[in-house]
Amino acid sequence: MTKKEIFVNAAFRENSVWRQILGICSALAVTNLMLNSLILGLGVIFTLTLANFTISLIRNWTPRSVRMMIQTLIIASYVIIVDIFLKANLPEISKQLGPYVGLIITNCILMGRAEAFASQNKPFDSMIDGIGAGLGYTLVLLVISFVRELFGFGSIFGLRILGDWWISWSIMVMAPSAFFLLALLIWAINTYYYKAKA
Amino acid sequence: MDISAFVLFWAAIFTSNILLTNFLGMCSYLSVSREIDSAMGLGLAVIFVLTITSALNWVVYHYLLVPFGIVYLQYIIFIVVIAAFVQFLELLIERYAPALYYSLGIFLPLITVNCAILGVSLFMVIRSYSFIQSVAFGAGSGIGWLLAILMLAGLRRKLKEKLIPIGLRGAGISLIITGIMALGFIGFSGIVQVQ
Amino acid sequence: MKDSFWYPIVFMLIMVVIFASILSVMYRFSQDKILRQERDSYQIAVLSTLASAISDYTGESTESIMAAYPESYERFVRSRDYPELDRESYQAEVDEEILAYCFEIRGKGLWGSMQALVSTTVDLRTILDFNIVNQHETPGLGARIEEDWFLSQFRDRLFVVNPDAEEDISQSYEFIAETQTPENERQLRRVTGATITSDSVIKMLRDEFNHIYKYFRNNEL
């Protein structure tokens, strides 16, 4: 596979959220604001890229029996780096994201990509796979949070774009809307795939 | 501060269900909800592990991480405590209760990566709960999770595959059902009075 | 070599040591910055709670007072220490004249403790400004108590009317729906979908105001 194919594959064809329904735990809770989604998405991209790179770098020396432990250790370390960075530079956002930064560790995408790709491929390829998968994930977060913030607050990235006449839909801010929107997204994409296949 | 543990317990089950309002533990929720029996098994295991690990992590946090000034390592330590406890439990059940191991044991490895477990420990720290509050919150969250997965498993059994549009089958329809359940749970939001 | 008993253990240990040292070095470098950020954001909250009182006296706009942080904090705000009151206390002063007091108050919400800053007139009867500094309510619902329309309702409100009679006016405040318009001074708009949190805010103000007022009836300001 060429580098470009690896990227496209990770970001779209095998997109973790809509193709494999992975990693939505930490995804949905922060999607009522676009800025939070973007920051969390960047955190995932950073962690995924470097964790994939590191895991792939040491793959030939890693003993099978402690493989999972090592992967968790590496992922958790990068997540802590993200956490320290946010606390030091973006304290407001760090407070809003609360436990969801730490929950990147148990995000199934990280373990999934580490197992499926990084533990069998070259470091540089794994990095590209990480960037691709992370971008695909962030894209899903942004699409959902775009709808939720627009209808729920009348704004985009905190900038109010719908006027005072707009009555915000509380339901978009609350949890159920995230489930419905993700379901609709998966529905639309699956239908597209089935059509393309036929 | 001094919210009664009892109130927290009920609030964790109904008014702020760990899955329906905090979205934690979605992966195994979607994949194990095909049959009621396995949903029940996994749910029980989650309640048990969640209650014990929130107690363990509370002790670790207050008597190890804070005194040594290594709170910034909490994510690693918490996940190690959870993984070690699950591993230990697996060995123990396999050794002393083989029958239980065959019905419950297969779910144990799934639990380590269940976001709900780590999530509860992190919430406990952020909201600075006391020991009793943490245990009550852990147990309540576990029961809430079991309730959610049992309801989904029950509803999925009644679905007629043929009537669902092809793109919506599986995960899509499960998410819509979950959304409706979450809407229903909003109705509980008045039952707990904090005074 | 990879199959030997010790190899995995040694490998694991090496990895733990490497990552733990990277993280602790990173943390040491960021620690000061994190602590400074925390202190700054708290001081800014105190300053902003007192800003309207300062602005009324000096004529400077609240924006210019806020923009001049940290210099304006040094100039106007003084921290006070009242033993046994057990609340962080500050006062705004210009030329040794006290303009307003600011107290950190605490209460409980639906999910955990709340912390807020409240500034009062020198007779401790009226709220000048009110800001929530820490809360763990449901994002998008209870957490909306941080929004300005909700907080501003508490500005210029009387909270203790006749302390000697132990009867306080705050009992008679009542909540109406967010979409309604208050008809009289007793009505406050509640955050939609967050009844408990809204009630908790009133309860926190009432309890804490009583506590502070009682303390200062027996102690000097």
Overview of this protein structure:
The complex is a heterotrimer of chains A (198), B (195) and C (221). Chain A is mainly alpha-helical. Chain A has ten helices and two strands, in the order ααααααααββαα. Chain A has helices at 3-13, 16-20, 25-29, 34-57, 67-89, 91-97, 108-118, 123-153, 170-173, 175-197; strands at 155-156, 159-160. Chain B contains nine helices and no strands. By secondary structure, chain C is α+β, with helices and mostly antiparallel strands. Helix content of chain C is 43%, strand content 21%. The longest helix of chain C has 53 residues, at 6-58. Chains A and B meet through α3, α5 and α10 of A and α2, α4, α7 and α9 of B.
pLDDT < 50 runs, ≥5 residues of chain B: none
The CA-CA distance between the termini of chain B, in Å, is 12 Å
Order of helices and strands of chain B: HHHHHHHHH
- Evaluate the radius of gyration of chain A: 18 Å
> How big a fraction of the residues of chain B is strand?
under 5%
Largest sheet of chain B: none
Q: Please work out how many helical segments of chain A DSSP would assign.
A: 10
Decide which structural class fits the backbone of chain B.
mainly alpha
Taking all residues together, what is the mean pLDDT of chain B? 84
Tally the structural domains of chain B.
1
N-to-C CA distance of chain A: 25 Å
Fraction of residues in H or I helices of chain A: over 70%
Structural class of chain A: mainly alpha
Secondary-structure element order of chain A, as H and E? HHHHHHHHEEHH
Q: Which oligomeric state applies?
A: heterotrimer
